[in-house]
Amino acid sequence: MTGSVRPATINDADRILILTIDFAASRRPEFEPTSAEFRRSMAAVIENGNSCLLVAQVDDEISGYLLGHLHGSFLANGPVGWVEEVMVDSSRRRMGLGKELMSSFEQWSVERGCRLVALGTRYATDFYLALGYEVSASHLRKLL
Length: 144
Prior knowledge:
Strand content: 25-35%
Structural class: alpha+beta
CATH topology: Aminopeptidase
Order of helices and strands: EHHEEEHEH
Largest sheet: 5 strands, mixed
């Protein structure tokens, strides 16, 4: 069974927050979002034409989300789609929801003239390789 993917609305905030908390806790507990800050961030993302927030639904329940952005790039000779976060509820994995979210984001990116889609991952490299992505760089960060 697969689900459907659609743009998120602010009415989806409570369920996306639950998924985000699960995602953050599994990666870095100190990044657990607070409800107030999450709602502010989500509203800003929805209003930003260069950001994309998608949800995957199964049986009318939001079971996953993708947050991505468009940004300019000199090396790509045009805009690039960047996947910031992809999360699928652990009970709904291996149903094709992540693939559907990525495909929808790729289409969103194409519609905006993006030359490529990129992302950083630590735990899901095999998933992205199966979707046709290739390893091209290291992803570094500095906590502030």
